[in-house]
Structures are given as C-alpha cells and as structure tokens.
Automatic annotation (TrEMBL):
Residues 6-112 form the Nudix hydrolase domain. Its cofactor is Mg(2+). The keyword Metal-binding applies. Belongs to the Nudix hydrolase family. It holds the Pfam family NUDIX. The keyword ATP-binding does not apply. GO terms for molecular function: hydrolase activity, acting on acid anhydrides, in phosphorus-containing anhydrides; metal ion binding. GO terms for cellular component: cytoplasm. This is MutT/nudix family protein. Keywords: Hydrolase, Magnesium, Metal-binding.
Length: 112
C-alpha cells in the first residue's frame, strides 16, 4: 500500500471585531470567486500558526494572535490532492488598512 501522496496545507482565520462582525475578503480569482476568510498556504519548514500569522499580516495588515479551533480536510476535485486546512479564530479592535491584496469588509453572521 502506497502511503505517499500530495497534501496541500492551508490556513483560514475567522476574525471578529468589537461589533461582533466577521471579516471576509472577496477573492479576485476567476477559478475561485466569492467570499472567504483570510488565510493561505503553509510554506516549507513553516508551522501552521506561524503561517496563519504571516498570512494575516500579508492579507489584512493586522498583527493578531490566532487561536486554533479545528482542522478540515477534503479532496481537491481538480488536482486529486488532499487538502488540509487549519482553522483559527481571532479578535481585533484595529482598523483595516485602506489598501489590501484583496477587498476586505465586515459582515454579520446573518450575511454569511
């Protein structure tokens, strides 16, 4: 039995503000449009939490202390690779920067 297979490691973080709103970003990729939480891929020799902190800074301009809340996995329909995502939560009272990689905005739970 071959136990060697490709695994793509990613991170996602649900961030709440003082109004209990949730931060989402609008993906600009044609092959993956829509809303998502900030996050991204884990680099070689990088831990999951370190990757999450880095991705949050890159995508939101925020320096946060995310807390691990879970793990999700699925098979990528296109590549056949196994996807493994670590899921984090964080809170902030900080303002978002005016310019970010992708549009960011606050929504209520109901709007999700």
């Amino acid at each position: 039995m071959n136990r060697n297979f490709e695994v793509e490691l990613t991170t996602l973080c649900m961030i709440r503000n003082q109004k209990n709103e949730i931060l989402v970003q609008e993906r600009q990729k044609k092959d993956w449009p829509g809303w998502t939480f900030p996050g991204g891929h884990v680099e070689k020799n990088e831990g999951m939490e370190t990757a999450m902190v880095r991705e949050l800074l890159e995508e939101t301009g925020l320096v946060l202390k995310p807390q691990l809340v879970g793990v999700a996995e699925w098979l990528n329909d296109c590549s056949g690779a196994r996807e493994l995502a670590t899921l984090f939560i964080a809170e902030t009272a900080a303002k978002l920067p005016e310019e970010t990689e992708q549009p960011l905005f606050w929504v209520t739970e109901k709007e999700l």
